[in-house]
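call fold(seq) -> tokens
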Amino acid sequence: MKYLLLCCIEEQTFTTMPTSECEAFMDALAGYCKMLQKNGHLIAAEPLESVQKAVTVRGREDTVSVTDGPFAETKELIAGYWLWQVR
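ret:
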């Protein structure tokens, strides 16, 4: 069975985290992803861009519009995803 997991964070909390704490978090996350990949459970994993780089794409009938910024104000944002294959 496949599972899609979303990594949701409060961007302000993450960006104000001390560098050493942020690096430790990212190293632990990379290690976990390597273990999942080694065990054949990780199909894909990708970080997403920050809210400052976000755009909203809308399609209606025969037109497509692209606007700057996220579609809604939120405290948390989706920072990335993992796609797992598990029993």
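The mean pLDDT is 87.
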